[in-house]
Amino acid sequence: RHPHLYTNLGSLLKDLGYLAEAVKMYEKAVECNATFDVALANLGNAIKDMGRVQDSIPWYLRAVEASPNFVEAVCGLANAMAGVCDWHARDGLFTEIAVRWNAVAMANEEQTAKIFGVMGRGKRPTAKAYKRKLLKRINYVPAQSPKQTQGVDKRRGWMDRVVEIVDQQLSDGSTWGRGVLLAQPTAADSSSLVRPTCGLVGFLEDICRLVPRVSTAPVTGLAVFLHNALELVRLIAGAHDACEVPEDKMRCWKHLMALIRNEGGWALRVVERAAVLIQRQWYWDAQQGSQHAIEALRNPQASVYKRPRLPAGLGAPLVPTVLPFHTFTYPLDAREVRLISHRNALRLSFTTLGGGAPWLPSHVYPPPPPPDPQINIGYVSSDFNNHPLSHLMQSVFGMHDKQRFRVFCYATTPPDGTVHRQKIEHEADVFVNCAAWSTQRIVDQIASDKIHILVNLNGYTKGARNEIFAARPAPVLVAFMGFAGTLGAGWCDYVVTDPIVCPPWTVRCEVRAERERRAHIASSSGGDVAKVLPKPEMQEKG
Fold this sequence. Notes:
Elements (H helix, E strand, L loop, with lengths): L2 H13 L3 H14 L4 H13 L3 H14 L4 H13 L3 H4 L3 H13 L2 H8 L10 H11 L10 E2 L2 E2 L3 H17 L8 E2 L11 E2 L1 H13 L10 H18 L8 H13 L3 H25 L3 H8 L35 H20 L21 E7 L6 H6 L11 E7 L7 H9 L2 E4 L5 H10 L4 E4 L10 H4 L5 E5 L13 E3 L11 H17 L11 H6 L1
Parallel strand pairs: 5-6, 5-8, 6-7, 8-9, 9-10
Antiparallel strand pairs: 1-2, 3-4
Helix pairs in contact: 1-2, 1-3, 2-3, 3-4, 3-5, 4-5, 5-10, 7-9, 11-12, 12-13, 14-15
């Protein structure tokens, strides 16, 4: 009797959509090991997915009892409490939960015996005894020091645990890739100089070979930065001690180290932005009549416009247990919501660009030719059916100026026969049903359609195919409508949003503009920087 085998088989059945069979396997796993937290939590998930949210809660409780720090169980329990609108239980009034679930269990002795084991001697417990046993089961400990955020208590009951878990996961994720690019001085090292690793030197050398400082394209700040950073890194790597480095260079090195403090995220961001420059360079070379650029358009496999690669030794980044779409139901501030989205974006980018997508070509995708005369706009969504997005967007596709734009719609789900789908199919210039297609085929189709602007109508919602955007088959990527918030992704150039769901202090370009504005005011006011220092909130969040 192996509970792990039953659990794995149950998970396989669940992934195939056989929920009832999956529940039976999980139950067998629990029979083998009554405290197996993974099986208990999976059983709760499967029962909840069957629409029996109320019945799932006792299983989550048992999982949390077996493993109080089991993230999936705690989050599943909090979500289930919200699913049955039991806000008191979710937010920590455990006397309420005891009374309510006591009434449920008392109405079904068999279920009570099966889940809580309180019928051991054939004797029904009193409500008071049941409540006491349940409080012990759920490991209830009153919060000693509630976490306050702008006067609002974020730590209450199960939601308290979820927020604590998210905070810890975000903190742990900030160390992704540590040691891959920067080498901290050891105790045996007489120098206190933080040195670049061979990985950082090689990474920048590879990037700079692909992104020249001067080319046919207009000079960009990133190209200049990368080449200056390479020169600086070589200087620091060759120094034996900090005293050998000129003072101005040391200041630059400290500034660069501050930028690289999240080593994995910085490297991934450089790779994504460098890919944009390389595709842009290809476009400019082709427009200038460069023979190798034109030949590369005919035969991309022989292209010199290679895709930059991540540094060796970089593992997959951690992602928080709470999904971006679920953050709207949690007491998290805008910065935490953005970081959760950002960590999910990092994982998806790493999976696509870091070798997890063997179909991705070694070159960047060819740039489309200039509009002649129409701009090709592609919309990708899994919701071109009877869905709120289609209710709102169904008329938009036919409202484009046909003289200036050509609209492509890529549907990643099969048709449902509703008028919403039919209207979109009729009014789009090109409608592609790619529900059964692989990601590679969809990406190749978008590239061959020579899309100029590709719009993501999903974001972090069910059915999203965000890896399409991570591959960047079009030069301009936009997020709109589907997900109410920033994607925090390098594979999204623009987001159509508002300052409520995306406060300006959580948007990189807004923070940079604010800093530049304050620096300009400081320089024009005689250098009295104290008068224009960023507000503490801006300084902290930026």
